[in-house]
Design brief:
By secondary structure, the protein is α/β, with parallel strands linked by helices. It is built from eleven helices and 13 strands. It is elongated, with a radius of gyration of 27 Å.
Length: 340
C-alpha cells in the first residue's frame, strides 16, 4: 500500500512540474495582431485617396459615377488582387486621412505628403514624385517665354484648388491682374483654351505637362519655375497599430517593384518609369524613424489565398479563391483604359 502511495505521489509531482513548465506566461497572453485576418474575414480592403487628377486617379467619364482609372487605380487594385480580396477605392478629404485610418474606416491611404503632414501615421517611402509648378506654353512660343517671369501679366490658366496654381498665385508681383489668372476645373479645358490662344500658358505639375506633350506631338513646351519649385511625394499611409496588414502590403509593394508591375503602370500612364520606391533589400520601405516589424514572405499570393480559403472553410463557406500565383504584367483597368 505504501509502495502504491509513493508511486502516486511521484506521478503527482511529475504532473505538477509539467503543468508549471507549460503554464502560459503573461507575454503569451498578449493579444495577437489580427489586422490582416480581419481583411480576409471581410474580403475587402478599403483604400482612401485624395488626389483625383489625371493620370494619377481620375474618373473616365466626369458626368457619370464610372470606375476610377489611372496609375493609382491600377496600383491599388493590383495590391488587392495579390492580397486576394475585393477592393474599394474611396475618395476622402486629405485632412481626414489620419482620422479615418486610426478609426479603421479606411485600411490604407494613397496620396501626396510626408511626415510633416501625417505625423501620427506610418508612411511608405515615396513611390513617385511630382514637381510643380511648371508652365505649359506653345512650342512656337517657348523662346519668347524662356524665363517664366516673362509670363508676368499674361493670361494664365490653372487647375482649381491645385498646389501648382496656389504656388504661382503667391509669387510676389507676378499676378497683378487677377482677371488674367483663370481657374479651370480640369486640365483638358485649360489646354484647349491654350490651343485657341485664349491663354498664354497653363500652370501644372511636370507629370501632367509631360502627358499633354506626349498626346500633342511637338505642340507644347515646358517653362520651369526653378526658384519656386515644390516636390510632392506620393506615398501610402498606414495605421501604425496594424503591423500585420502593413507588413503584408510592404511585401506586395516590394513584389510589384521586383516583378516590373510598377514599371509597367508607370510607363502606361506617365510614358516613362518615374518610380523611386527603393527595394526592401536595399532600404526600409517605411520612412526613417518609423518602425514596423517586417518579415518578407516569398509566395505572397498563394499564402494569402490559402489563409483566406482556410477562414472561409472555418465559417462553412465555399472558398472562392484558388491558392495560385497571379501574374501582374497588366491589370484589367490597364487593358481597358487608354491614355486620354
Amino acid at each position: 500500500m505504501k509502495k502504491f502511495i509513493s508511486i502516486a505521489l511521484i506521478f503527482s509531482v511529475i504532473l505538477y512540474c509539467l503543468s508549471s513548465c507549460t503554464a502560459t506566461s503573461p507575454e503569451d497572453e498578449t493579444p495577437k495582431d489580427t489586422s490582416l485576418l480581419q481583411i480576409f474575414d471581410k474580403n475587402l480592403l478599403t483604400i482612401g485617396y485624395s488626389d483625383a487628377q489625371f493620370p494619377i486617379l481620375y474618373k473616365e467619364d466626369k458626368e457619370k459615377d464610372s470606375d476610377i482609372a489611372g496609375f493609382g487605380a491600377d496600383l491599388l487594385r493590383d495590391i488587392c488582387k495579390r492580397l486576394v480580396v475585393n477592393c474599394k477605392l474611396k475618395q476622402v478629404a486629405e485632412q481626414d486621412a489620419e482620422k479615418l485610418l486610426l478609426s479603421g474606416e479606411i485600411d490604407i491611404f494613397f496620396g501626396s505628403g510626408g511626415e510633416e503632414k501625417y505625423p501620427n501615421l506610418l508612411l511608405s517611402a515615396p513611390i513617385f514624385e511630382c514637381s510643380s509648378p511648371v508652365f505649359l506654353v506653345k512650342e512656337s512660343e517657348k523662346d519668347v517665354y524662356s524665363d517664366f517671369l516673362k509670363l508676368k501679366d499674361k493670361t494664365v490658366g490653372y487647375l482649381n484648388l491645385s498646389a501648382s496654381g496656389n504656388i504661382v498665385g503667391q509669387i510676389p508681383d507676378f499676378i497683378t491682374d487677377p482677371k488674367k489668372y483663370k481657374s479651370y476645373l480640369d486640365f483638358d479645358t485649360a489646354v484647349e483654351a491654350l490651343k485657341k490662344d485664349e491663354l498664354d500658358a497653363v500652370v501644372m505639375d511636370n507629370l501632367s505637362a509631360y502627358i499633354v506633350m506626349l498626346e500633342n506631338e511637338d505642340s507644347f513646351a515646358v517653362v520651369d519655375v526653378d526658384a519656386q519649385k515644390v516636390t510632392d511625394s506620393f506615398i501610402m499611409a498606414f495605421n501604425p497599430e496594424r503591423a500585420a496588414l502593413n507588413n503584408k502590403i510592404a511585401d506586395i509593394l516590394d513584389l510589384l517593384l521586383k516583378d516590373g508591375s510598377l514599371d509597367f503602370f508607370s510607363r502606361h500612364w506617365f510614358g516613362e518609369n518615374v518610380i523611386i520606391l527603393p527595394p526592401l533589400a536595399e532600404n526600409k520601405l517605411f520612412s526613417e524613424g518609423q518602425k514596423s516589424p517586417h518579415i518578407v514572405s516569398e509566395e505572397i499570393v498563394s499564402t494569402t489565398a490559402s489563409i483566406y480559403n482556410s477562414i472561409q472553410n472555418q465559417k462553412g463557406n465555399t472558398p472562392s479563391v484558388p491558392p495560385k500565383n497571379s501574374s501582374s504584367t497588366s491589370s484589367q483597368t490597364s487593358q481597358n483604359s487608354t491614355v486620354r
